[in-house]
Amino acid sequence: QLQLVESGGGLVQAVGSLRLSCAASISTIGSYTMAWFRRAPGKEREFVARRSWSHTTDYANSVKGRFTVSRDNAKNMVYLQMNSLKPEDTAVYYCAAATTTWGSPDYWGQGTQVTVSS
Predict the structure, then answer these.
(1) CB 94 within 8 Å of CB 36
(2) How far apart are CA 43 and CA 56, in angstroms?
(3) Lowest mean pLDDT across 8-17, 57-66, 87-96, 98-107
(4) How far apart, in whole angstroms, are the C-alpha atoms of residue 95 and residue 16?
């Protein structure tokens, strides 16, 4: 059973940066598509970014050019570098893993809070 644990959230001022980390409990994440989602207060959870096993990436339009998803399969880690943060990026961010390349996630982390002040 794959378990995912996020870290790195916190409070940051607008235009600042944060890097979120996601630690996986197994050593075979190389075959998964790893993704980040977020849920803002009062809103539905939404897709943010993902990186497939073949390192193809995909981003939501709202974060394109500001966020970068990366992975280190040797360390069982996934990262989300967030630059030029905006107050509307405030949300709980979730790490997720999908067993199919562009399918819905099969595994979810507990989430980490990111708050961007204006």
Answers:
(1) yes
(2) 28
(3) 98-107
(4) 21
For residue 56, give the 3-state DSSP assignment: coil
What confidence tier does 90 reach under pLDDT thresholds 50, 70, 90? very high
Tell me the residue type at 81.
Q
Pairing of strands 10-13, 112-117: parallel
Which residues in the chain belong to E strands, given as ranges?
4-7, 10-13, 18-24, 33-39, 45-51, 57-59, 67-72, 77-82, 91-98, 107-108, 112-117
Classify residue 4 by its DSSP letter: E
In the predicted model, what is the mean pLDDT of the chain? 95
Distance CA 43, CA 71 (A): 28
- Reading the block at residue 14, the tokens are 């607008």
What average pLDDT does this structure show over 108-114? 98
Cβ of 45: how many Cβ atoms within 10 Å? 15
Report d(CA 94, CA 52) in Å as an integer.
16
Give the tokens for residue 79.
Answer: 């990262």
Which residue is listed with tokens 């199919």? 100
